[in-house]
Design a protein that fits this description.
heterodimer; A: alpha/beta; Rossmann fold; FAD/NAD(P)-binding domain; five-stranded parallel β-sheet; 17 helices; 34 strands; elongated; B: mainly alpha; Fumarate Reductase Iron-sulfur Protein, Chain B, domain 2; 10 helices
Chain lengths: 649, 137
């Protein structure tokens, strides 16, 4: 017979107000197995815990029941107290007499009787509790970062600089992301490429970073510390081992394709690098546009390549990487103008989005930094910027604020005035949200020094007329209707998560919120973690954010990864469902019902085996098993029968 | 509702706006329409549009509309607005700029010599001085 100590908590009047604690103690002091029973005002307090510890040692108790609040609150506290004096923590059980008894009843006599039964059941459970040890899990100290924009670059560098290997997966042929497209960055106006490219080069040169460019994640299996990721390396048709990036192929290729990097304002070739500072600076061949792939003729690139690097026979290949943690930094895309019929639906050439204007402003852009409008190359004299396009519009588009538009529109208006001093910039806005360091000053500078006219109101319509775009809105500050015959209109369209995020989230078993962004584990206290252990979030994949925030979050995610890697082992809860091999008939029913893929049928032995690390102890297999071979540890059928018996008799 | 405004860069940076800027030394674009000037103005109840609306209209290049309001003449030049402005804009000086521009344009010009001497004697001296000022400009 076990020697069980029972400790009944008053929880001030939370329990004692409805349950007669003294009476419970009196009723249970002679219950079989109870070697000691005591009540105390606050069992979770230090004196309360010390009472438990002292009695375990003094009376050599081999089981403890604490009748108190929900196990979600203090189970860990009491198990820790037991463990500190040598009692296996899994022989300490909580009888919840607060949430499931005192808080939900008014009748003191009935509540007291019920509390007594709950405690009796817990005593019966402890009698059959085994000593369990946490499942020890090794950690692969190697991380994967998905997405090579500024957030992914920062996460990869921070982890790599902590001494751990990183696999950086980027679906484009170069890292850099949208930041590489930007002209200058608010609020300091440093050139975006100038501050980004050193980091890109650091990634390329870092001996701890394995860069997989032009590659996508196809499958993810495993669990924290032990992920297996299948990656598709898309066919580049260029042997990057031989290629030196000399660029002859790009120069001579006769096929012109609208450049994605230049937002289709300029052309690239069918064999190309997206921009001159690309990392890796090696071209890929776009087989959808290549003449050879379409007609079987041409091969100019192959003939001219001095290093024989062109290989038309290349196919997609698959790589498997073992990693212990994954950082998702897949970034954003702009809401398509096609989805905005109220602003021309993308059909008016001189109505463009913010990224297109970045390329127009960029010194390395299609117009060499001279502000021209796309339709006729004229320098625009009246430029209208419209904010909250698709954002803050729950009825028609998206309810959230895209966060970066206030500042980049301010920057756009300012840079436009710097390039075209005789021109006029107008900004239609609903609010100006300048909440970062130096942002408000930046906004005031645009208004004061560059005389940007801020018009408070949403533009209701715009249309083409005589080579101009007529913009009609209201200025609610003066209560006047406004009409501007603009040469160019720039829309600050909503930030959307990058395409493919839903599929990737499914592979990683992480959540997506109502707007399509990845869900963090806690909006305030766990902002860089997903709900799946070992998967972390950085940058715009989680919510719209600017460069400083994305970098800070990426560094935070990297710190979480290195914290994980600093441990020798991970420990997994041992309350899992095992298999009694004597009873198991190998029917395999449990394999199908397991939601965690923890069970597999060993055909040679004719029994089911359990991966203890994957098992989360949900009990689905226990309920499904026809022979009773699947048994949850410390929650066996026998224990549950005894608990019911204690309550009913 | 007041007439629709057709905004152009010529209108916003027009010569009249430049004159007010020259006289007052105030960059009206620095105003962020907090409304503190109007809130603190002791004469605002008597004005047809409050001081912050004068600033807003000047930002939109509506100089003529501003000059046709009574507000610059109601202004007491007490400087409360200038003291309270968080952007340290001297709104009282903008009012003075408006008054000067009105005078230069000889709106409501009145030749004192058309009055008979008896009426002239009944006028308060300040009215005469104000009229001389108008004539001088």
């Amino acid at each position: 017979m076990r020697k069980i100590g029972v400790f009944v908590c008053h929880c001030g009047i939370n329990i004692a107000g409805t349950v007669d604690v003294k009476a419970v103690v009196d009723l249970l002091k002679d219950y079989p197995g109870v070697a000691y029973i005591q009540d105390y005002k606050y069992m979770c307090s230090d004196p309360g815990q010390n009472l438990i510890k002292t009695k375990i040692k003094e009376l050599n108790l081999d089981g403890v029941v604490v009748a108190a609040c929900s196990p979600t609150l203090h189970e860990a506290t009491f198990r820790g107290a037991s463990e500190s004096v040598g009692l296996n923590p899994y022989r300490t059980e909580i009888a919840n007499i607060r949430e499931q008894c005192s808080w939900v009843h008014h009748d003191k006599a009935a509540a007291t009787a019920k509390a007594q039964l709950i405690i009796k059941a817990a005593i019966e459970k402890v009698k059959l509790d085994e000593e369990l040890q946490p499942v020890k899990v090794p950690i692969t100290r190697r991380a994967m970062v998905i997405g090579g924009g500024i957030a992914g670059i920062q996460a990869a560098l921070s982890i790599a600089n902590s001494g751990y290997e990183v696999v950086l997966v980027e679906r484009q042929s170069s890292i850099g992301g949208h930041m590489a497209q930007l002209s200058e960055t608010f609020p300091t106006l440093d050139c975006s490429q100038c501050i980004l490219t050193p980091k890109m080069v650091e990634v390329a040169q870092h001996h701890k970073i394995k860069l997989l460019a032009y590659a996508t994640v196809e499958d993810v299996s495993g669990f924290v510390g032990n992920f297996k990721v299948k990656i598709k390396q898309k066919a580049r048709y260029v042997d990057w081992d031989k290629c030196t990036g000399c660029g002859i192929c790009m120069e001579k290729c006769p096929v012109k394709v609208p450049s994605e990097f230049d937002e289709e304002l300029a052309n690239r070739k069918a064999i190309y690098t997206p921009f001159p500072q690309a990392v890796p600076n090696k071209p890929v061949l776009d087989s959808a546009h290549c003449t050879y792939f379409k007609t079987g003729k041409c091969q100019i690139c192959k003939k001219l390549c001095p290093f024989d690097a062109i290989d038309y026979t290349q196919t997609d290949t698959f790589i498997e990487e073992d990693v212990g943690a994954i950082v998702v930094a897949t970034g954003y895309e702009l809401y398509s103008l096609k989805s905005l019929p109220e602003y021309g639906g993308g059909k008016i050439v001189d109505v463009i989005d913010g990224l297109t204007f970045e390329r127009i402003l960029s010194a390395s852009g299609p117009y060499g930094g001279i502000v021209r409008r796309p339709s006729d190359g004229q320098v625009p004299r009246e430029v209208v910027f419209i904010k909250c396009v698709g954002s803050r519009d729950p009825e028609n588009h998206f309810p959230y604020c895209s966060k970066v538009c206030c500042m980049y529109t301010t920057k756009h208006a300012m840079l436009y005035k710097h390039r075209v001093p005789e021109g006029q910039a107008y900004v239609f806005y609903m609010d100006v949200r300048a909440d970062g360091k130096g942002y408000e000053e930046f906004y005031q500078r645009a208004a004061t020094e560059d005389q940007v006219v801020y018009l408070r109101g949403k533009v209701a319509k715009l249309y083409r007329e005589n080579g101009k775009v007529v913009v009609t809105g209201i200025d609610t500050l003066s209560n006047r209707m406004i009409e501007i015959k603009a040469d160019l209109v720039v829309l600050a369209s909503a930030i959307r998560p990058a395409a493919g995020i839903t599929e990737l989230a499914k592979l990683l078993k992480i959540g997506i919120d109502q707007n399509g962004f990845l869900t963090e584990a806690h909006p305030k206290l766990r902002p860089v973690e997903s709900l799946t252990a070992g998967v972390y979030l950085a940058g715009c994949a989680q919510a719209p954010r600017d460069i400083p925030d994305a970098v800070a979050q990426a560094a935070g995610a990297a710190a979480m990864v290195t914290t994980l890697f600093a441990r020798d082992y991970l420990y997994h809860e041992p309350i899992i469902a095992g298999v009694n091999t004597d009873l198991c008939s190998g029917c395999g029913i449990c394999v199908g019902v397991c939601p965690y893929a923890a069970r597999s049928l060993n055909r040679s032995k004719g029994v089911v085996e359990v991966n203890e690390i994957l098992c989360e102890g949900c009990g689905a297999c226990v309920a499904a098993c026809p022979s009773g071979a699947a048994q949850q540890k410390n929650l066996t059928d026998e224990q549950i029968h005894q608990m019911i018996k204690a309550i009913l008799t | 509702m007041a007439e629709k405004i057709i905004l152009t860069h010529q209108k916003i940076n027009g010569p009249d706006a430049e004159v007010i800027h020259e006289i007052s030394g105030v960059n009206v674009f620095a105003c962020y329409q907090c409304g503190n000037c109007s809130a603190t103005c002791p004469a605002v109840d008597f004005m047809d549009i409050p001081p912050h609306q004068i600033m807003r209209n000047l930002q939109l290049g509506l100089v003529n509309e501003v000059l046709n309001t009574k507000t610059p003449w109601i202004c007491l030049a007490c400087l409360s607005c200038s003291v309270k402005c968080p952007r340290s804009l001297d709104i009282a000086r903008v009012m003075e700029g408006c008054r000067n521009l009105i005078l230069r344009r000889k709106y409501e010009y009145f030749n004192i010599h058309t009055l008979d001497s008896e009426t002239r004697l009944k006028l308060p001296p300040i009215a005469l001085i104000a009229n001389f000022r108008k004539n001088l400009l």
